Automatic annotation (TrEMBL):
GO MF annotation list: GTPase binding
Protein name per UniProt: MYO5B protein
InterPro entries for this protein: Dilute_dom, Vascular_dev_regulator
UniProt xrefs under SMART domains: DIL
Pfam families: DIL
Residue intervals of the Dilute domain: 1-126
UniProt superkingdom: Eukaryota
Length: 171
């Protein structure tokens, strides 16, 4: 059950983050607030179902960081340092893309300046990120089945003749 929910939450994360990276109309402060609110509900549901050890919440980390990135101030060099230290699950390319797509929804917000984005790129230069922008939402985590050894030894098993397994020999 835990493995199923980890996979499901990863798919939620990948599809939502990919939509965020591809759609300018959803890159805003209010979307960041809405994402964080909905993610909190998912995390509370996991705790309520006692699934917090499944790793499902950790698969949402890139989406959480993207939501926080949308909510942070984006003006000074200190803001750039804060963004770089906070967004460890996002690649440099993803951070820059979200900042480029950021769209103010009211008169109190401002667009992210080109100088600020260059400052972010300078701070993140030493990162060794993979060159991918979108997450693979078809990624599958390996499934693990717990091994429970049997107390029955193989030399005590009797194979009925009706199974037509004469080719098996006891050694």
């Amino acid at each position: 059950v835990q493995q199923v929910f980890k996979q499901l939450f990863y798919m939620i994360n990948a599809v939502a983050l990919n939509n965020l990276l591809l759609r300018k109309d959803v890159c805003s402060w209010s979307t960041g607030m809405q994402l964080r609110f909905n993610i909190n509900h998912l995390e509370e549901w996991l705790r309520g179902k006692n699934l917090q050890q499944s790793g499902a919440a950790q698969t949402l980390e890139p989406l959480i960081q993207a939501a926080q990135l949308l909510q942070l101030k984006k003006k000074t060099s200190e803001d750039a340092e804060a963004i770089c230290s906070l967004c460890t699950s996002l690649t440099t390319q993803q951070i820059v893309k979200i900042l480029n797509l950021y769209t103010p929804v009211n008169e109190f917000e401002e667009r992210v300046t080109v100088a600020f984005i260059r400052d972010i790129q300078t701070h993140l230069q030493e990162r060794n990120d993979p060159p991918q922008l979108l997450l693979d939402f078809k990624h599958m985590f390996p499934v693990f089945f717990q091994f429970n050894p049997s107390t029955i030894t193989l030399d005590t098993i009797h194979i009925p003749a009706s199974l037509n397994l004469e080719f098996l020999n006891k050694v």
